[in-house]
Write a structure and sequence with these properties.
single chain; alpha/beta; TIM Barrel; eight-stranded parallel beta sheet; 18% strand; globular
């Protein structure tokens, strides 16, 4: 199981004056995916970046591999409403996996199918107080389920402990479904809690300031993997 864990640093916390270099450094340090937190100042009270950043970094990530020799995926989390137009733009810009919030789409199944039609993997994202009912209808269409362990919109927040119970519930749904769906968690992930989050059922972990806020990326990622071991 240890080899199955994904560490996905969020570039929201990277130094944007040298973003390409930051991506290369964090991959060399042991990252598996590169996570994009896309905010629109509408669905959430913050504004980050758009498809042009994805397009500019794609040629770089195409030539990089993680420690298992796998391609570095661009993992896009859309905190935007409406979803469809921007999802298509990110797909064309080179995103490998696009996740969105079901309450930000008028037609969740249609949005899922639109993203898949572009050759991208697709995920749904659930905020801390959001019910999981929509999974009853679409779970077999998904490649990833992302649980927010903070309220979306800002980096550097503290992990909400009640998220662990939601992660456990989603893990049971995935296991019952029988599909190889990734269970990702985003928000307040650090060395000292990543094992607890994994114990609840997560296999993919987004970390922003916990990695990019430290002087030695490799040391932090190695410590996360040690905790997971």
């Amino acid at each position: 199981m240890t080899d199955n864990y994904i560490i996905a640093p969020s570039i929201l916390s990277a130094d944007f004056t040298k973003l390409g270099e930051e991506v290369q450094n964090v991959v060399r340090a042991g990252a598996d995916w590169i996570h994009f937190d896309v905010m629109d100042n509408h669905y959430v009270p913050n504004l980050t970046f758009g498809p042009m950043i994805c397009e500019s970094l794609k040629p770089l990530t195409k030539n990089l591999r993680n420690s298992r020799g796998e391609p570095i995926l661009i993992d896009v989390h859309l905190m935007v409403s409406p979803v469809d137009a921007l999802a298509m733009s990110f797909a064309k810009a080179g995103a490998d996996l696009i996740s969105f919030h079901p309450d930000a789409s008028l037609h969740v199944h249609r949005s899922i199918q639109s993203i898949k039609s572009q050759g991208c993997k697709v995920g749904l994202v659930f905020n801390p107080a959001q019910p999981l009912d929509v999974l009853d209808e679409v779970i077999e269409e998904l490649d990833l389920i992302l649980i927010m362990s903070v309220n979306p919109g800002f980096g550097g927040q503290s992990f909400i402990p009640s998220s662990l119970k939601k992660i456990e519930r989603v893990r049971r749904r995935i296991d019952s479904c029988g599909k190889p769906i990734r269970l990702e968690v985003d928000g307040g992930i650090k060395v000292d809690n990543i094992r607890q989050v994994a114990n609840a059922g997560a296999d993919s972990f987004v970390a922003g300031s916990a990695i990019f806020g430290q002087p030695d990326y490799a040391k932090v990622i190695a410590s996360m993997r040690t905790a997971l071991d």
